[in-house]
Design a protein that fits this description.
With 399 residues, the protein is an alpha/beta fold. It has four domains: 58 residues; 55 residues, Beta Barrel (OB fold (Dihydrolipoamide Acetyltransferase, E2P)), CATH 2.40.50; 182 residues, P-loop containing nucleotide triphosphate hydrolases (Rossmann fold), CATH 3.40.50; 86 residues, Helicase, Ruva Protein, domain 3 (Orthogonal Bundle), CATH 1.10.8. The strands form three sheets. It has a six-stranded mixed β-sheet. Strands 3-2-1-4-5 form a five-stranded antiparallel β-sheet, with no helix packed on it. The longest helix is centred in the first third of the chain and has 44 residues. The radius of gyration is 32 Å and the shape is flat. The structure holds adenosine-5'-triphosphate (ATP).
């Protein structure tokens, strides 16, 4: 309470006034006491939280180990790495029903007691896989690419939905599909829409991450990827940036190259091993089809190639229509925008639509004007130079 708030008593006031003053003052002070007590309680809670945090920080590191066998409710046999086995206690806070032989656990350094249940190695997020049970993308969200979507559906959707048809005709459906083309033109989008259409789980893995983030483990991860895919079938496995593991093999001079090759060999082995009529489908994507190892493209592997190029005028118009579907447009000439964005990718066009919306919001408007779009084109594409570069690069790489 501030000093100004305090009620002052003047000497020349009456006795009754004095009593009233004292009563009010007491009420004020009681209120102050209550506020201070609440503050004290809050600070004590904060202090104990910080103390706990500090004691957690001071804890020695724990060993990572594997639970081999539960002996009873209190004890288990564990092992860390391939060392000796120990009979140890299990901390009371661990949920017993979740402990299974093979579980990864943290072991206290001194007593080796099980103090934490760690996420399984197969936990997709630990492995760096993105798993979506049913992607929220449908074919309606893809602008243009009619021919490409049609080809993808024939290669993947048809055999999944009507496997008997292929049996009757006596041919094997394609095993894997390779989507190639410049970045941001809808490869991931197509794979997601397909997974949605066939009610399949979508598992995405990025080639460059497999080899960079999990050094020495690429091959193991590939085999775990397919194991997970079989578990969750029907599944669409999407391998982005496959060139990071599937580039033409050079002589294995460095450890890094050997590692990449091992990962690729594992991928080829997995592809060779599974049934083309099964319900795990593999779609790979690359921006650099020219550097891929031909072994990957052999029949029975990625034997259906689909180019996903930069969109032409009609494609750009359709992509813009998709991304402005829910926007409140006022006198926007979408055709003119599609015309002036030659060389832009689908991702660029999406960014343009979003930026145009941002310009409207900045001007405190709830509708978007053509002017907003013009400013957005300028902001996203940064002048014609970038577009000219994109077109030139596209021509060099994809003909
Ligand atoms: P990368 O090679 O970089 O992985 P990509 O070809 O897989 O690129 P996407 O991830 O599919 O590109 O596209 C990025 C975003 O751009 C999408 O989420 C989507 O919003 C938009 N986009 C790209 N192409 C299209 C398209 N044809 N129709 C509608 N939106 C598109």
């Amino acid at each position: 309470m501030s000093v100004e708030d305090e009620i002052k008593f003047e000497r020349d006031e009456t006795y009754d006034d004095y009593i009233t003053y004292l009563k009010r003052r007491i009420r004020q002070l009681e209120l102050q006491v209550r506020t201070l007590e609440a503050d004290k309680e809050r600070l004590e809670r904060e202090l104990s939280r910080l103390r706990m945090e500090m004691s957690r920080m001071r804890q020695p590191p724990a060993f990572a180990g594997t639970l081999l066998e539960m002996l009873d409710e209190e004890r288990a046999i564990v092992q860390n790495f391939n060392g000796p086995r120990f009979v140890v206690r299990i901390a009371p806070w661990i949920e017993r029903e979740k402990l299974k032989p093979g579980s990864r656990v943290a072991l206290d350094q001194r007593t080796m007691a099980v103090i934490e249940l760690l996420p399984s190695q197969k936990d997709p997020s630990v492995l760096g896989f993105e798993v979506i049970d049913k992607p929220m993308v449908s074919y309606k969200d893809i602008g243009g690419l009619k021919k490409q979507v049609q080809e993808l559906r024939e290669a993947v959707e048809l055999p999944l939905k009507h496997p008997k048809l292929f049996e009757k005709v006596g041919i094997d459906p394609p095993k894997g599909v390779l989507l190639y083309g410049p970045p941001g033109c809808g490869k991931t989008l197509m794979a997601k829409a397909l997974a949605n259409e066939v009610h399949a789980t979508f598992i995405k893995v990025v080639g460059s991450e497999l080899v960079r983030k999990y050094i020495g483990e690429g091959a193991r991860l590939v085999s775990e990827l397919f194991e997970l895919a079989r578990e969750k079938a029907p599944t669409v496995v999407f391998i982005d940036e496959i060139d990071a593991i599937g580039a033409k093999r050079m002589d294995e001079t460095t450890g890094g190259e050997r590692e990449v090759n091992r990962t690729l060999m594992q991928l080829l082995a997995e592809l060779d091993g599974f049934d083309p009529r099964g319900n795990v489908k593999v779609i790979a994507a690359t921006n650099r089809p020219d550097i891929l190892d031909p072994a990957l493209l052999r029949p029975g592997r990625f034997d259906r190639l689909i180019e996903v190029p930069l969109p032409n005028f009609t494609g750009r118009l359709e992509i813009l229509k998709v991304h402005t579907r829910r926007m409140n447009l006022k006198d926007v000439d979408i055709k003119a925008i599609a015309e002036m964005t030659e060389g832009a990718s689908g991702a660029d066009l999406k960014a343009i639509a979003t930026e145009a919306g941002m310009f409207a919001i900045r001007s405190r408007r709830s509708y978007i004007t053509h002017e907003d779009f013009l400013k957005a084109v300028d902001k996203v594409l940064g002048g014609e130079q970038k577009l000219a570069q994109q077109i030139a690069m596209h021509e060099v790489m994809y003909g």
